[in-house]
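TA notes, week 10

Several of you asked for a full example with nothing omitted. So below is the full record: structure tokens for the whole chain, then the designed sequence directly under it. When grading your own attempts, check the secondary structure regions first.
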């Protein structure tokens, strides 16, 4: 954020505002953590604040401080619309294009509020009055910490805010191991622990609440894995029938895609998950090194994200999607074997 933006934000926040904070659809730990931490900060500053999530999110995020205040756009539609329509300021966190909020897109487009974007994904769209975009950042949570720092108010970060920020940095960095994890990330995390984030308890809340059915579903996913050494690629499929058989709940497949990358020599991993209700195959893509899954997802699967982590979708059947994917992969042989 440049100094002109900081001055603009300071001036906006010097008056009591009606503020809506929005994460992307299917919010993850970083989206919820950044929204809930910013919520805590702005409330302390005397604003009227609401977090409005486009849809539901996994149980392993629902223990987070202030979670009970979140409005779900799908479940509490009139209330959510009212908050957005009446807002004077709307923060959009952890996404950079209004298409990422699903059904909420039109409501946001019609809102009269000033928009402030805080995000670390590539190729931001130009919809905000203030755009704080930095693709080198580990997480939007690290950026919310910086945002509060730019305003000179990190002393306002309490244990609840620290817990929310720690959670998002932890989930978006794969527990502090992905390439975007910098020494500065670790300094921020250290400060969050000093401010009251209980690192061990947070790891347990997020990672150690498996159900037996989720572990069994992981077993199915791993045995479905197809390994293509000549393309240094591994992919997993999960059909709706398989999900139903193992009592699938939102979030149960989180992290499954990463197993492909633990194979020696594999640099490109995907998971294709059927969603019969939405009539789509949801795709998660991950890579190691310079192969950009953001570009791959943008070019072929109506998605995007980061160089090493992206998402997308296909509107054809699983069989057709996999067949198309295999055809596309053939054209990437050189890029995957540099
Ligand atoms: P995941 O595979 O965990 O759903 O998403 C990985 C990354 O890609 C996240 O940073 C997420 O925000 C982004 N992403 C996931 N799905 C989409 C999508 O459909 N479009 C875009 N532009 N980004 C996505
Ligand atoms: Mn993120």
């Amino acid at each position: 954020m440049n100094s002109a933006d900081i001055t603009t934000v300071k001036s906006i926040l010097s008056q009591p505002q009606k503020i809506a904070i929005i994460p992307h659809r299917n919010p993850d730990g970083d989206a919820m953590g950044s929204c809930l931490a910013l919520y805590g900060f702005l409330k302390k500053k005397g604003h009227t604040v609401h977090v409005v999530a486009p849809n539901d999110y996994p149980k392993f995020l629902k223990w987070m401080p202030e979670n009970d205040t979140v409005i779900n756009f799908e479940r509490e539609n009139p209330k959510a619309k009212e908050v957005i329509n009446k807002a004077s300021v709307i923060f959009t966190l952890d996404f950079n294009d209004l298409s990422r909020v699903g059904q909420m897109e039109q409501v946001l487009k019609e809102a009269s509020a000033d928009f402030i974007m805080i995000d670390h994904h590539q190729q931001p769209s130009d919809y905000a009055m203030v755009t704080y975009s930095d693709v080198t950042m580990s997480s939007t949570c690290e950026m919310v910490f910086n945002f509060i720092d730019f305003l000179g108010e990190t002393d306002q970060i309490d244990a609840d805010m620290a817990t929310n920020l720690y959670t998002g940095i932890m989930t978006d960095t794969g527990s502090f191991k992905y390439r975007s994890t910098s020494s500065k990330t670790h300094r921020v995390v250290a400060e969050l622990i000093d401010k009251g984030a209980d690192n061990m308890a947070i790891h347990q809340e997020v990672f150690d609440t498996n159900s037996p059915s989720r572990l069994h579903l992981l077993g199915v996913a791993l045995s479905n894995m197809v390994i293509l050494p000549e393309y240094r690629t591994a992919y997993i499929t999960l059909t709706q029938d398989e999900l139903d058989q193992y009592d699938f709940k939102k979030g149960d497949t989180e992290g499954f895609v990463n197993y492909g990358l633990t194979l020696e020599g594999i640099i490109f991993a995907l998971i294709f998950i059927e969603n019969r209700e939405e009539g789509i195959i949801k795709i998660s893509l991950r890579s190691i090194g310079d192969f950009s899954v953001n570009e791959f997802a943008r070019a072929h699967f109506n998605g995007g994200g980061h160089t090493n982590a992206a998402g997308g979708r296909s509107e054809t059947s699983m069989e057709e999607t996999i067949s198309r994917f295999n055809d596309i992969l053939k054209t990437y042989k050189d890029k995957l074997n540099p």
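The domain at 212-336 is CATH 3.10.310.30 (Diaminopimelate Epimerase; Chain A, domain 1). Use that as a sanity check on your answer.
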